[in-house]
Amino acid sequence: HQTLDPQQIAMEPAALAQIIPQQPGQPYSAQKIRESIERLYEEGFRVFVELGPSGNLMSFVKDILGERPW
Predict the structure, then answer these.
(1) Which of 31, 32, 41 is nearest to 3 (CA)?
(2) How far apart are CA 41 and CA 54, in angstroms?
């Protein structure tokens, strides 16, 4: 994950593409996703944005964070 001050991020596709790691062919393991979401939550992140059609990230976030507010 990348820790960024939200004020530093321009919400435009070209700007977002610059900060999102490009890792084609390198899927994350379920454990890596769990660790990343837990770490982000501990650091105070409460908004998770998924890019793409599948909806997998939101399912992972719901499963991992459970009843915790986010």
Answers:
(1) 41
(2) 22
- Interval 31-57: pLDDT, tens: 888 888 898 898 898 988 887 777 788
User: Left (φ > 0), alpha (ψ -120 to 50) or beta: where does 52 sit?
Assistant: left
- Token output for 18: 């610059």
Of residues 44, 61, 62, 59, the one with CA closest to residue 3: 44
In angstroms, rounded to a whole number, what is the distance separating the alpha carbons of residues 63 and 66?
Answer: 5
> 3-state SS string over the chain?
CCCCCHHHCCCCHHHHHHHCCCCCCCCCCHHHHHHHHHHHHHCCCCCCCCCCCCCHHHHHHHHHHCCCCC
Query: What does pTM read for this prediction?
Result: 0.57
